[in-house]
């Protein structure tokens, strides 16, 4: 029996490292055609080349999700490359500066909002007409535990944007249910990625201390998050469109569903 993901075309923003790269790898290994999108040309090209050397069909397209024309071009080029687009993983995100609110100047605030909120909004805005025309599609947006169940006083701005991603996810899921479009949010607990390295100032002892916030007491792995994202893309009946799913070491921990569910 053919894999349900075989031949599907996926775009992954922020796909060069961490969770994005883990999802790109898993999708490609199951026969999907993958476009990695990001601002860092060297990092993105290196990741795509590494995966291509493993025999996977992966390309990199330099994209700034803060710019609507760049997103429109990304989807057009992905379709030109592979003949269609079925899956979107909105994974691009930045943490800004963690600490008291006074540590974030206006430029930092603008940049975090532009990537984490505007970028997700614009990617969905641009892809939804395409999905409507073709009769369906699946979107997974990356949020975070800090936007859900555990307030993080040193991450007010990050938490606000991640809560916004969940709100957008649930609203779009409800608004486009009749178009056979499914929209989910994946909300990792602290995960062993380059972002966590930055939060811990690249100190293992600090990483271990931060990981104690997780229910498991351990840092989640990018592969743990990728497993949940792949299940969503595969149509796993355990997930409903509009779900925001927290993920820890080992997999999903709980779901936050819209009140209408």
UniProtKB/TrEMBL annotation:
It is an enzyme of class 1 (oxidoreductase). Keywords: Oxidoreductase. Its EC number is 1.1.1.100. SMART domains: PKS_KR. One of its GO terms (molecular function) is 3-oxoacyl-[acyl-carrier-protein] reductase (NADPH) activity. Gene3D superfamilies: NAD(P)-binding Rossmann-like Domain (3.40.50.720). Coiled coil: none annotated. It holds the Pfam family adh_short_C2. Residues 8-176 form the Ketoreductase domain. Belongs to the short-chain dehydrogenases/reductases (SDR) family. This is 3-oxoacyl-[acyl-carrier-protein] reductase FabG. It comes from Aquisphaera giovannonii.
């Amino acid at each position: 029996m053919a894999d349900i993901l075989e031949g599907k075309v996926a775009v992954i923003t922020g796909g060069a490292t961490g969770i994005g790269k883990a999802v790109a790898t898993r999708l490609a290994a199951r026969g999907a055609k993958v476009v990695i999108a990001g601002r860092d040309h060297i990092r993105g090209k290196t990741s795509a080349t590494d995966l291509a050397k493993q025999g996977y069909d992966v390309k990199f397209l330099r994209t700034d999700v803060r710019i609507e024309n760049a997103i429109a071009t990304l989807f057009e080029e992905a379709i030109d490359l592979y003949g269609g687009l079925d899956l979107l993983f909105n994974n691009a995100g930045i943490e800004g500066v963690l600490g008291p609110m006074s540590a974030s100047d206006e430029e930092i605030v603008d940049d975090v909002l532009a990537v984490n909120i505007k970028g997700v909004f614009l990617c969905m805005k641009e892809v939804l007409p395409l999905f409507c025309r073709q009769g369906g599609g699946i979107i997974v947006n990356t949020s975070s535990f800090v936007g859900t169940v555990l307030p993080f006083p040193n991450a007010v701005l990050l938490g606000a944007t991640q809560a916004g991603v969940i709100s957008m996810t649930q609203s779009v899921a409800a608004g486009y249910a009749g178009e056979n479009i499914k929209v989910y949010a994946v909300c990792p607990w602290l995960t062993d990625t380059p972002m966590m390295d930055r939060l811990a100032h690249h100190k293992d002892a600090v990483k271990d201390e931060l990981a104690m916030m997780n229910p498991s007491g351990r840092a989640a792995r990018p592969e743990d998050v990728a497993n949940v994202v792949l299940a969503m893309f595969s149509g796993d009946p355990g997930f409903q469109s509009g779900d925001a799913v927290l993920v820890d070491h080992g997999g999903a921990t709980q779901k936050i569903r819209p009140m209408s569910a």
